[in-house]
Design a protein that fits this description.
Elements: H1 6-10, H2 15-28, E1 34-35, H3 47-58, H4 71-83, E2 94-97, H5 99-111, E3 117-122, H6 126-134, E4 138-143, H7 154-161, E5 167-171, H8 183-194, E6 200-204, H9 220-223, E7 231-236, E8 249-252, H10 255-267, H11 274-285, H12 289-310, E9 325-326, E10 336-338, E11 341-343, H13 346-357, E12 359-360, E13 362-363, E14 373-376, H14 381-396
Parallel strand pairs: 1-12, 3-4, 3-5, 5-6, 6-7
Antiparallel strand pairs: 2-8, 7-8, 9-14, 10-11, 13-14
Amino acid sequence: MPQLARRIGRAKPSVIMLIADKAKRLKAEGRDIISFSIGVPNFLPGEHVHAAAREAIAKDSGQYGSNRGSDALLDALLGHVEGLGLTGYGRANCAVGIGAKQVIYNLAEALLDEGDTIAFPVPYWTSYLDIAEIVNAKVDLLPCPATQHYKLTPAQLDAALANKPKVFLFNNPSNPTGMVYTKDEIAALAEVIARHPDTWVITDDIYNRMLFDGLEYANFVQFRPELRERTIFIDSLSKTYGMPGWRVGFMVGPESVAKAVTTLNSNHITSLPEVVTAAAVAALSGPQDVPTQKCAEFQVRRDRVVAALSAIPGVVCPVPQGAFYAFPEIACAFGKSHNSVKIGNDVDFCAALLDAKGVACVPGSAFGDPRGLRISYTCPPEQLAPGLARIQEFFSELT
């Protein structure tokens, strides 16, 4: 019998989706389940986005679109990034994809040959490692524990880049930790990157509009403009605009990279659908009141989550300042039991929490840090307080 390609043996299903699916199954079976597992914003975009989609349907041409993205969408993207302080780019610097994940996969194909090295901080978004393994790249993991607030230091980065990895992948604000690098921290890292010219830099910054406590977004190229020649900025409509199901991601960077991604698009997705494109243009170019309002709401939720977790003896939770995640360190529970169920690690903890209290979280080992777990606080508002109370109760019952 013919065999599957070897790369399929390196491909793994998303741990986050596996847990989310289990939570859905339990809920369908009648269990009272509160899910803190999946990073779905749980709000819809402004009405002007849906109106643009409806108008596009009414005027549907039925034709293929551009491999790179329509001119209207590219112009909207450029206006968006200029608002973030990334100026001087044109349409030739842009390319779109079916969500940011597909853009990152395209970049892995475009930048990494088999055996090349990609470096990124830990904790990391699960797909970083999965994609690197599929393309058979080597991975250099840069541990950033809770003791350093899950942030990469200039010294760590300098040591990593001295080994000349082909790609350095950076996520700010962070999924899974919600940590945000300040302008001064970004400037210090940019100085290090500038000293190592042999590495591509990908900044996965899809939560750039979800910043709390008055923080402002910053990118390496703002401090060292010469880094534009090898820095690729990634963004998405999914989180900011409540549009994960619309699947719109994009990149802005060197023309050669954008051209490579466009060529790859021509060989698999062809283009974004016309209706999706119209909605994306409306989201980026239209009123921004929904993203602004939701960011403020998530900051309030962040405060409640951190307060609840900080009240648990032994739990350490650096305060997240962006996205909609918290990443508490829960190693204090290891070696204990809950109703005779032994908790040896983060996976045991999450399984016991789901079985005993009906709360779904993602174990930290899925993100490279087995001492923690990820809480996504995007659940319906009425579920947040009960879910946190169940976690507190679970800890109080450990023996």
